[in-house]
Amino acid sequence: MNYKFPDFNVEIVNPTITVVNVSDKIQLKYCVVSILLVDEVGTKFGFTFPNLFTYVDSWEDADIDAWVDKQLVAYQVK
């Protein structure tokens, strides 16, 4: 998959994607999530999602990963 983010004036080709930061606002039940994308030549791009991950009681790492996958669809280049 290729991605294009408003923060970068470049198409990111076939990156590996890693969740690097989850800032949990426990009392408000939401998280701010940041990812690192590394393209095929090793260029690194950091991105923080403008949308918030929300939850009811608690969350697991797998919940964040699944949420990131869903959010990334909006940034895919087709």
Structure description:
There is one protein chain. It is elongated, with a radius of gyration of 13 Å. The strands form two sheets. Strands 3, 4, 5 and 6 form a four-stranded antiparallel beta sheet that branches. Strands 1-2 form a two-stranded antiparallel ribbon. It is built from one helix and six strands. It has about 80 residues and is an alpha+beta fold. A hairpin with a 6-residue loop joins strand 1 and strand 2 (about 10-15). The protein has one domain. The mean pLDDT is about 95. Helix content is about 15%, strand content about 40%.
Brief overview:
With 78 residues, this protein is an alpha+beta fold.
Specify the biggest β-sheet. 4 strands, antiparallel
Residue runs with pLDDT of under 50 for 5 or more positions: none
Oligomer: single chain
How many individual β-strands? 6
Q: In which range does the helix fraction lie?
A: 10-25%
Kindly report how far apart the N and C termini lie.
Answer: 9 Å
Q: Spell the H/E element sequence.
A: EEEEEEH
What number of domains? Answer: 1
Q: Strand pairing plus helix content: what structural class?
A: alpha+beta
Average pLDDT confidence is 97
Rg computed from alpha carbons, rounded to a whole number of angstroms: 13 Å
Large-scale geometry: elongated
Total DSSP helices? 1
What percent strand?
A: 35-45%
